[in-house]
């Protein structure tokens, strides 16, 4: 053994020893991340290695390609449930309120009459007087949550050809809203999912509605009610992912809960992974980095009433479900053209996707959706339809998110998950041979937007699992 190898060995022994010493505290968040993912036979460790070594690097390069980086979305839909209550919601606040005297010219958006304005003004003052809760820097939040909608003229011309191509394909089903004038392409690479400063009552209300009004609950109380929503816990809601709570529900309801919880976890990991630290001297732009403290605040068992580790585990569950959907869609996706109008680019991308799908397909331990909705009964049909309705409703709640960037990623990830579920439960047979087959377009079809959402949503989960390595290392 040469000196270098010996050094390395000693070093790793030393780090194992020190890991033992610090292990308890450092590993607390990760204590559930070993062994089987709940309701699946697959192991967390297997997924870590599959994702970090094979899936993540490939997806990262795929998602930077033109086909995947432009997402068509309608961010102007009205929230159907309540009026926007985000503390920094007043989009032209800097014109109307903050600098009213300095801006003599009215901007084009002036629908408000005086009494409305008065109301908004009061609301704004009230919110910013709420200290930690409503205060903070709205200018910063607005900057961070604003979308960069830059799209070159050249690209716009290309989108026209994308559209012509897409419309020339036979369509058998209409995706919600596919032709609305409010649909816009957004460049996802220009608008990464990261910390935006969006916090307080508004996001809490979103998550509370999702968990309390749109998730399933055990029929009988199991001692664990939904967690109280506290002032201090600014993101949190009724995420009662404790084992007893979940075990008191049937498999299908548990699956639903875990899917949503996994998505929630993933969003929170991104926020901690790309966090904006204020500039040291208090001036100038801050710096982006990993925020271990924030991560621990959200996932440490002591700080989350023991829920954190289970939430992290649910991320793996959601990952497995979307992975399975991709695998089931392989026959379909292999025949997809991934049209962008540039023949060379399209061919390259198709190769790249094929290479990625080969890994997905070869993974032996997929989530088994055939276990769901298995019993053929009236109740089961009812449950399935509730499942679908709840999920649709959650996608509508995304229109209530009061921060454009968060809304963009929320909508994308919910659509991606919805697409995954559509793949999993399409056709007569939910299991076994895939009915998801490009030669059978009359039975099953995915639009460009759905494909882009599916890949990007899975990309988000993949990047979260990858980021856990960073936090694990930082914790030591
Ligand atoms: C002004 O706003 C008030 C309160 O929302 C409303 O009742 C009234 O009809 C509005 N007036 C005009 C001219 O739009
Ligand atoms: C949809 O979600 C909203 C907001 O949480 C809730 O008030 C409503 O009851 C839900 N509707 C259905 C049909 O579940
Ligand atoms: C797709 O369906 C066609 C027609 O039924 C069939 O011939 C083909 O083998 C299927 N392809 C795959 C990959 O299952």
Summarize this structure as a short list of keywords or feature phrases:
476 residues, mainly alpha, two-stranded antiparallel sheet, 17 helices, 4 strands, globular, disordered N terminus, membrane, signal
Overview of the structural elements:
With 476 residues, the protein is mainly alpha-helical. The protein has one domain. Helices cover 54% and strands 3% of the residues. It has a two-stranded antiparallel sheet with strand order 1-2. A two-stranded antiparallel ribbon has the order 3-4. Helix 2 (44-63) crosses helix 17, helix 10 (251-273) packs across helix 12 (308-328) and helix 12 (308-328) packs across helix 16 (404-424). The longest helix has 28 residues, at 448-475. The relative contact order is 0.16. The structure holds 2-acetamido-2-deoxy-beta-D-glucopyranose (3 copies). InterPro entries: Ero1 (IPR007266), ERO1-like_sf (IPR037192).
C-alpha end-to-end distance: 28 Å
Which stretches are low in confidence, meaning pLDDT under 50 for 5 or more residues running? 3-23, 90-135, 222-239, 428-432
The major sheet is characterized as: 2 strands, antiparallel
Look at the helices and sheets and give the structural class: mainly alpha
Instruction: Classify the beta-strand content into a percent band.
Output: under 5%
Helix content: 40-55%
Q: Order of strands across the widest beta sheet?
A: 1-2
Q: How would the global form be characterised? A: globular
Count every helix, treating DSSP H or I runs of 4 or more residues as helices: 17
Radius of gyration: 23 Å
The number of domains: 1
**Distinct ligands, ions and cofactors found in the model:** 2-acetamido-2-deoxy-beta-D-glucopyranose
Give the rounded overall mean pLDDT.
76
The total strand number stands at 4
């Amino acid at each position: 053994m040469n000196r270098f190898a010996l050094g390395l060995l000693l070093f790793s022994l030393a780090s194992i020893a020190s890991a033992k010493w610090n292990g308890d505290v450092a590993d607390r968040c990760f204590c559930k991340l070993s062994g089987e993912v709940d309701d699946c036979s697959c192991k967390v460790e297997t997924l870590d290695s599959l994702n970090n070594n094979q899936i993540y690097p490939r997806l990262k390069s795929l998602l930077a390609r033109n086909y995947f980086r432009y997402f068509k979305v309608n961010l102007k839909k009205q929230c159907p449930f309540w009026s926007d209550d985000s503390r920094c919601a007043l989009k032209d606040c800097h014109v109307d309120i903050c600098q009213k005297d300095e801006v003599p010219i009215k901007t084009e958006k002036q629908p408000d009459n005086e009494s409305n304005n008065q109301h908004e003004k009061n609301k704004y003052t009230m919110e910013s007087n709420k200290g930690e809760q409503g205060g903070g820097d709205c200018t910063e939040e607005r900057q961070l949550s604003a979308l960069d909608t830059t799209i070159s003229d050249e690209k716009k011309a290309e989108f026209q050809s994308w559209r012509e191509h897409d419309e020339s394909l036979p369509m058998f089903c209409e995706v919600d809203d596919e032709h609305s004038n409010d649909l816009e392409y957004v460049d996802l690479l220009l608008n990464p999912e990261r910390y935006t400063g969006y916090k307080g009552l508004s996001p809490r209300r979103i998550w509370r509605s999702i968990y309390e009004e749109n998730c399933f609950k055990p029929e009988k109380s199991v001692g664990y009610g939904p967690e109280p929503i506290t002032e201090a816990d600014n993101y949190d809601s009724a995420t009662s992912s404790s084992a007893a709570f979940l075990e008191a529900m049937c498999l299908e309801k548990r699956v639903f809960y875990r899917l949503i919880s996994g998505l929630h976890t993933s969003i929170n990991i991104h926020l901690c992974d790309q966090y904006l630290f204020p500039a040291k001297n208090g001036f100038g732009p801050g710096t982006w980095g990993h925020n271990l403290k924030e991560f621990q605040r959200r996932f440490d068992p002591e700080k989350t009433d023991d829920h954190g580790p289970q939430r992290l585990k649910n991320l793996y569950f959601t990952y497995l479900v979307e992975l399975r959907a991709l695998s089931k869609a392989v026959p379909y996706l292999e025949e997809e053209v991934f049209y962008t109008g540039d023949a060379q680019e399209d061919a390259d991308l198709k190769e790249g996707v094929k290479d990625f799908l080969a890994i997905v397909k070869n993974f032996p331990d997929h989530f088994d959706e055939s276990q769901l909705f298995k019993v053929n009964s009236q109740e089961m049909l009812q449950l399935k339809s509730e499942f679908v309705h709840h999920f649709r409703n959650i996608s509508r709640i995304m229109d209530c998110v009061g921060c454009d960037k968060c809304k963009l990623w929320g909508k994308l990830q919910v659509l991606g998950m919805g697409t995954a579920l559509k793949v999993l439960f399409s056709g007569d047979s939910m299991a076994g041979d895939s009915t998801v087959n490009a030669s059978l377009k009359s039975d099953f079809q995915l639009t460009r937007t759905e494909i882009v959402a599916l890949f990007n949503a899975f990309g988000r989960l993949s990047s979260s699992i990858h980021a856990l390595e960073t936090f694990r290392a930082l914790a030591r």
